[in-house]
Specification:
The chain is α/β, with parallel strands linked by helices. The chain contains 22 helices and 22 strands. The structure holds iron/sulfur cluster.
Length: about 700
Amino acid sequence: MTDPLASVVVAVRADARVRRLLASLASQTAPRGSYEVIVVENGSADLADTDGADGITRYARLERASSGAARNAGLGLARGQFLLLTDADCVARPGWIEHLTARLAAGDVAAAGGTIVKHQPGTRAQRHAITVVDGQRSLSYLPALHLPYVAGANAGFVTSALREAGGFDEELLSGNDVDACYRLGLRGHRVGLAPDAVIEHEDRATVTAHFRRFYTYAVYQVLLYAKYKHLSGKRYVLDAYPLRRALQAAASAPGCTAHLLRGDPGPASAAALQLIEAAGVLCGDISGAIRFRQPYLLRTCHHRQERSPAVSMPDRPPLVKSRERHLTRRGVLWLGLRCDVRCKFCYDEHVPAVQKGWLSLEDAIRALDKFRSYYGNEFVDFMGGEPTLHPAILDITAHAASIGLRPTVITHGMHLARPEQAAAFAQGGIHDFLVSVHGTGETARAIHGRGRDNAARQEQALDNLRALGVPFRFNVTMIRDNLTELEAIAALAASKGARVVNFLTFNPYFEWERDVEISFQARHSDIAPHLMRAIDICTAAGVEANVRYFPPCQLPGYEQHVYTGYQLPYDPHEWDYNSWYDTGYPGQPGEDWYYRASGRQRERHDYHEVSACGGCALRDVCDGFHAQYAARWGGSEAIPYPGPPVADPRHFIRHQDKYQYPPGEPGSGPGPSASSSTELAAPLGLTASGGAVARRKLPAGQ
Ligand code: SF4
């Protein structure tokens, strides 16, 4: 006997409505031999006669009342390539099995959920209450973890993937379907939707049952939160859902009154049921928090559209290096300045804590949409602070990926030492990481000022990313403390598989410029010999080496690696001045615009010529020396280039072999639009981001 394509598993306890479900399963459009139905009765003993029904049903029985245990028993018996779940209080529409298995057979998801509609609502509660996860027309999320789930009332799984993930958690009397999806997600699988696979669900008939339903959901969501909080990193949950539902009910009061006066009690009934639902969730939250001893009171439940395939782990074709130079299409978004280390050179050292708040998810999405649709950016860097601490970072990076903005997170990387955290970013469509590696061994911790095993955690993070196939680059801020380690950092980049190392000169920006004697600042001439050897190591290993904010004349023979403000627009790893400062120029301006923007940037960052620069051929495409640096050490290190004036910022860098990214890979968002909307043209004004806003300010007059 050949195995069927699908096994439908129904966990049931003392519910005769299962016979109605079995009848609907017997009249599916799918060929009769292509599926089997496994009824697992748990905690009751009335359904043995269903064994063999319609020639497709197998019966099993457990003494214990547990839907998780019953589903696992069904999983153990299942012979189908796909395992489909539904419940005794449901009715399957004729094409249900056919559509759900077709979605799973597409191969890009390990779990899928179909649409859930009401089944013949009779009572007022059935007519006016929401049905399961509001119809499952979009993927659902709970606060326990960032991953999507589908409801067991209408869900399908790839059987082998579900078995490998360990099946269903038998301790979760509610929510074991959510848990199964989480475990699949953590293993890198995607969850999707099958809108044409429709299940009718008979909602609770009474108000009391309606309350109890939401109460039970909420209680076990607390247990789910407890189970995954070591991965989510959440120390508590604040749940706005009951409040939101109550406010929705209150807001509908005037309309309800008008309908009541016209003799229509429907809207008033719906509002009353919203209040009951809110009360059920609130009581369940409180009960679960006490029962499982968790700091859980309020949750935010929301639904999103199914993400595009671009959000899954992208295929990463091998990149080529080239000497062609194009203007960068990379935006940058500061998510907030909070951080859990205190690098001694941090530019945000002097920003008051009150100004370090996180950018909201809504503001981040608005900015990203503008970067993509208005400015035509194809990449985006997320800056902090430490962006991996942002509570919505995975939602933010996923949104970027979904609109065709390849997301990079600039991070100290230590939280990616947890494999689950690295995997979560990988699953969410991250393009690459830019990891700040300022030292090896104890030097890393000393520069960070906080933390334990910092260098070891960073190395573990790099290993995790490499294992996941997620590319990464290094940022190294060169200060007195790490000059003798630049070569070791370059060797580390080569051994771990970094694509790029950016060697950054410490810039005394912002409040630092008032401090002439900065203890850790190093002279260019002290840095140069170490830096040249580090570049050699990178070059020999095929790692792209870039030097930022260093006068080219300080690295004779290595100038093709050097990027001052004038060269930065030609580095795809650097930021687009247009979207960075939200200048309002739609699309991408020409090279002349970027040349003038480079001059403004030079002025903003307080760079100047020193006296030797006056006779230098490069003076029109070089920043010179920072005012603080020149005040401290003068300009005697400058070595002017002879010859006619150089006007092209690419003069040296066009000789560097540099990674190129294929256009549009991997996302396929809308791109710049000539008819960008008025809304997108409005200034971003990210007022919620406190200190982050300060990093976007333009100099006066721009
Ligand atoms: S302009 Fe000044 S700082 Fe720049 S390369 Fe020439 S001499 Fe050096």
